[in-house]
Amino acid sequence: MKKELRIFFTALMFLTRLPVPKFTDHSQEYLEKSARYFPLVGWIVAAISGITFLVFNHHVGENIAILASIVAGVFTTGAFHEDGFADVCDAFGGGWTKEKILAIMKDSRLGTYGVTGLTGILAAKFLLLKELAAFTPGMHTSFLDIVSRYQPFLLVLVAAHALSRLMGVWTIYLFDYVTDPDGSKSKPVTSLKPSWATLLLASLFALFPFIFLPWQFALAIVPVVLIAYRLARYFKKWIGGYTGDCLGAIQQVSELTFYLAAIIVWRYIG
């Protein structure tokens, strides 16, 4: 149990900026096993974003609450995934060869493609969450009343964060990590493919929130899987596999895809 806790805290330390116990370190052994808990970390990020939304919605209003929840998520992860998405936009927007793409991707400076992509994805996230929140409107007089009214919205939030991180785990399993030619790029999350036990546990964590949602929301998983797979195939075509930044981009795009699919399900199927 202590070993599993250490593996979990390693995943938490890797994906977020939340404090972890002192016995947690950067052990490669535990980092390689930590992928099984990536969706569970998604629960935590979603919980922090969701609580922030509820508090601000109670005291200020829905629009500010959505913006605050996004900011809370960014601060929780240290913009870990957003940074990867921006780097991917810069690299694949400005590079036409594998070497050039990897060189741009490791550059700490943010270019026009990165700024445009980051602005676009944050704006899309705000609009999609606003649309999702609109499905549970109504007058409220207490904090508990808000929690009750926005319960479906909060569950979708948890499902999106967990499922989108699962896509990264499956990408690690299905595709190869791309080594930077000059060796200066950071090492992969794991030098080993996740075991079937890791994939199963990660998948269970990602799918568990759907137990509390209407069954129709399971349909939203399909476009997420398809988009994530196609994006990973695109990376393979251009650079031969994935990098850490590519995994961040897959997480962000998968999260937005799930929000969009959930809106369609909610409006036309649910």
Automatic annotation (TrEMBL):
Record function comment: Joins adenosylcobinamide-GDP and alpha-ribazole to generate adenosylcobalamin (Ado-cobalamin). Also synthesizes adenosylcobalamin 5'-phosphate from adenosylcobinamide-GDP and alpha-ribazole 5'-phosphate.
Stated family: Belongs to the CobS family.
This protein's pathway: Cofactor biosynthesis; adenosylcobalamin biosynthesis; adenosylcobalamin from cob(II)yrinate a,c-diamide: step 7/7
Cofactor(s), by name: Mg(2+)
Domain of life: Bacteria
Listed NCBIfam families: PRK00235.1-3
UniProt keywords, alphabetically: Cell membrane, Cobalamin biosynthesis, Magnesium, Membrane, Transferase, Transmembrane, Transmembrane helix
A GO molecular-function annotation: adenosylcobinamide-GDP ribazoletransferase activity
Biological processes annotated in GO: cobalamin biosynthetic process
Chain's gene name: cobS
Reaction(s) catalysed by this chain's protein: alpha-ribazole + adenosylcob(III)inamide-GDP = adenosylcob(III)alamin + GMP + H(+); alpha-ribazole 5'-phosphate + adenosylcob(III)inamide-GDP = adenosylcob(III)alamin 5'-phosphate + GMP + H(+)
Protein name: Adenosylcobinamide-GDP ribazoletransferase
EC number annotated for this UniProt entry: 2.7.8.26
GO cellular component term, pick one: plasma membrane
Record membrane topology: Multi-pass membrane protein
Coiled-coil ranges from the UniProt annotation: none
TM ranges: 35-56, 63-80, 110-129, 150-175, 195-228
UniProt-annotated location(s): Cell membrane
